[in-house]
Amino acid sequence: MRALLAYKRGEPRVCAMVRAPTPQEEDRRRICRERKTLTAERVEHVNRIKGLLFAQGISDYEPLLRKRRERLEEIRTGDGRPLPEHLKAQIGRELDRLELTLQQIKSVEAERDAMLSPSDGGTPAPGAMLKNLKGISPEFAGVLWSEGLFRNFSNRRQVAAYAGLAPTPWRSGSVAHEQGVSKAGNPRLRTTMIQLAWLWVRHQPRSILTLWFHQRVQLNGGRVRKVLIVALARKLLIAFWKYVTAGVVLEGAETTAA
User: Fold this and answer.
1) Global confidence as pTM
2) pLDDT tens per residue across span 196-214
3) Average per-residue pLDDT in the chain?
4) Residue-range definition of the domain harbouring residue 231
5) CA-to-CA separations, 250 to 85, 128, 137, in angstroms, rounded
6) pLDDT recorded at residue 257
7) What is the rounded distance in angstroms from the CA atom of residue 225 to the CA atom of residue 210?
8) C or N: which end of the chain has fewer Cβ atoms within 10 Å?
9) For residues 14 and 120, what is the distance between their CA atoms, to the nearest angstrom?
10) Do 251 and 135 sit in the same domain of this protein?
């Protein structure tokens, strides 16, 4: 109560207020989250089918191919026998679940693409702006927008802190020690930014941040690539925030049209 009264008196540093997303913004997050869940289910079905067949000496069957059912009728065990009846029936039911998962993934991806499409007035949506950058897939653009960049941030420190990429220095007397990133923010956004940082170095070689990364790696003899990639992820997230809010294009970045 004392902290709330102090905040109402105009003392902004006494506490921080949580900015809860609207029901529409919270519901929009479900698209990319559901796709991640369905992708994990697809991997489980594929691994289960391959495991059942590998026990029979079969290692060249791919359940994700279009002719998976025709191929199932043709394969033979390692000693030349046809597949046992109940095993084939079990694999068939696994294929039914796999095909249903693949169909649901396509439906979720269609909803995601609709979310990233330009608005009716022709103004590019923030998600579409991110997708136009080379090296950013529709899935990455959807996660960046729905998990973090839709929020209103006052400065770049708030952006980095929300993703858990802000540094956490520790000082006591004459001792100053860096403890790494806080990891206190959105884990989905943080994981996506780390993955995107590696892809950014590969697909945006002339970007100013990519040049900065290579320069710092050379100065340190190539031993701190994993540490610097986290710093690059933080800088990229701040650059994307400036890009979708103020239209500031990162120097040297290429678009898919180019």
Assistant:
1) 0.83
2) 999 999 999 999 999 999 9
3) 90
4) 125-171+178-258
5) 60, 16, 17
6) 64
7) 12
8) N
9) 43
10) yes
**Same domain, yes or no, for 94 and 133?**
no
Is the same domain home to 142 and 238? yes
Tell me the C-alpha distance between 135 and 255, whole Å: 9
Q: Note whether 93 and 111 are same-domain residues.
A: yes
**Per-residue pLDDT averaged across 68-81, rounded?**
92
Task: Provide the token pair at 20.
Answer: 């809860």
Per-residue pLDDT band at 3 (split at 50, 70, 90): very high
Same domain, 52 and 143: no
CA dist., res. 239 & res. 258, Å (int): 20
- On the 0-12 / 13-18 / 19+ scale of CB atoms within 10 A, 51 is exposed
Considering the domain architecture, whether residues 54 and 165 belong to the same structural domain is answered as no
Quickly tell me which residue has 């029901």 as its tokens: 23
Other C-beta atoms lying within 10 Å of the C-beta of residue 222: 10
pLDDT of residue 122: 55
Q: In angstroms, rounded to a whole number, what is the distance separating the alpha carbons of residues 73 and 247?
A: 56
